[in-house]
Each structure stands twice: as structure tokens, then as C-alpha cells.
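Hi R.,

Here are the chain sequences for the assembly we discussed:
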Amino acid sequence: MSDSDAALVARTLGGDLGAYATLMARYRDKFGGYAFHMLGNREDAQEAMQDSFVRAYRGLGACRQPDRFGAWLFRILVNRCRTVRRRLQRDRRFDADLPDDIAAGGPRPDSFEWRDEIGLALGRLRPHYREAFLLRYVEGLEYSEMSEMTGAKEPALRMRVKRASDQLRELLRDVHAG
Amino acid sequence: MPAERDDRIDDEVLHRVVAELRRPVRLDPAVDQRALDEIRSEAPGWPASRHGHRWGAWLAGGAIAAGLLLAVLPGSGSRQPAIAVAPAAPMPAASIGRAIHLRLEAPASSRVAVVGDFNNWDPAATPLRPAGDDGTWVVELRLKPGRYHYTFLIDGRRWERDPSEPPAAESDFGAPVSVLTVS
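And here is the predicted structure of the full complex:
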């Protein structure tokens, strides 16, 4: 039987880095999808994940509910993804800068598959819309949890999820039908 | 966790989108090792519990009556602080850099420290010192140009953001934090 998060946090606070390695391995792939879909590529997702692990370790004593370490780490990751995304936008490397003809339904390379299309469509959403959609439907958070995590009020989050859904549906309808 | 009933997805396109996005995404396991390397290289004394604190308890306190003043002194100081500043507490990497004077008025407090990016958020690294009998606490930092997140720890329990500097746009740890830019 594997150690609980609370036990691993306690061992880490006692100086056992091996316990922290176990926590990282437990959550790397579990949260990797969120970072990947928020940032649009694996390299930046890995950077955000690594940075989140380091920051979580630095502030581990602030984790008030060690049995909910995963939720606490995820909150840090959500913030790190925002930071990385802003930097990418400054550097103009974000997917939102993809040519309009691709995202708007223009000619696509034949190799593009459904997963690629979804990635392109997500990249066309406003970051707050994308974040809200992923938190709500992919991560399965309640609006109250999303509000606590993002600082946005629930009505605003509902609006973002609705608009993200409408835009994704519009962007992907033709691909889906084809 | 299922979505709330009032905004269930009832559209086939979005069903397929969500199903695709829920598929696992594997990141390079080397991420873990790189994080460990970074942890080992920057702060061998961490985590904070080594100093006998539970940081969570810091976040539970209420507000205290505190006035705060930050004075940035170029070189030897063309702007004098309102009060005499005690010698700086030892800093991890701070024998050079610009003099930054922090001052906190917290008369009901028994000890005050500053934690931030410049001291790896170590509550034992940078205590403030009493500057007199009126409850004023001071410390001098030596900081290289850059942008630093920081906050104050009062009586080992309460975090108090510096109101004289901008708040952090986001707080990873859910606690009040300020941002100091040293030019």
C-alpha cells in the first residue's frame, strides 16, 4: 500500500527528499495534461510543472491540509501556467499567434488529426476562457473551487465556460462532421 | 468529479473534446530530477519546518495594527530613514547590492521577520530588530537589481503584506504578498 500524501509531506518536512520525489512522480502526469493544454506544448508544460514542484517544496509548510497536497499543488500549477503563458505572449510564441487561416477553418496539413485540431482550437480561445473550460470540464472542479483558485467570481466563470464551449463548438464543428 | 447539472455538456462535439482532453498526457520524468536538482542547489536548509514553524499557522491570524514604510537608499543614502536603522541581519547572499530599509510599526508584536525571494522564504534568515521603545521594527537588506516577492511574518504566525509596495498579482500560496522592484 502506497504512502498517503500526508505521510509523504510529513517525511519531506523532516528532510526526506525521497518522499518528495514520490509526490512528484504521483502528480507529474496527473496534472501534466492541464499544463499541456493550457500552454499548448510539452516543453513549456514541463517548465511550469518543474517550477511548481520547486515552489511547492519551498512553501510546503504552508500546505495546511497535507492530505490534500495534490489540490494545493494544482493551485500552484494553475498560477505558474498563467505566468508562463504571459511570458509566452510577450515573446509571441503562443499558439494564439497561429495563422488565422488554420484556426478559422482554412487549409490544413493532411496529417492534422482530431487531437491536433483540438489543440489549435484551444489555442484560439482567450486564456481565461481556456482556463475556465479546462478547470470545469476536464479537471471537473466545482465553480466554488474554481473561484477560490482563480480569484474570479462564479458568474464570471460561468460566462467564460459558456463562451469557451460555444467557441470550441464553432471551431470544431466542421472538423467533427468531416 | 461530475459537472454541475445546470451546465452539463449535451453536445456531441464537446463530449468528444472533453474525452480527448482527459486522456493522460505524459511529461518527461526528468522534470522531477530537475526540480530536485534545483531544490538541492538553492537551499540545502529547506523546508521551512526545519525552523520549527508550521507555515499554515501563519496564515490564520487576523489583521494587526501595523504601519509600514519602505525606504530605498541609493548608495550611502541621500534619503534618510525616519529612524535610525539597526545593522542588517546576515543575509544569504547579500554583501553587495542596494540598501533597502524596511520599517514596521507593530507595537503589540514580540518578533517580526521578513520572508521573500531574497532569502528563500526562510523565516529564520532575516529578523527585524526593535528600533526603540515605540514598537517600531527595522531591517536593512542589500539587494541586487531585480523583482522580489516578499511579506512580513509577525510573531511567527501572521503574514502581513507590505502596503507601501504593490501587491503581487497572484499569490501561489494564498497569502498576502508584495512586490518590490529594485532598480
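Residues 76 and 183 of chain B are 16 Å apart (CA to CA). Chain B is about 15% helix and 25% strand.

Let me know if anything looks off.

Best,
T.
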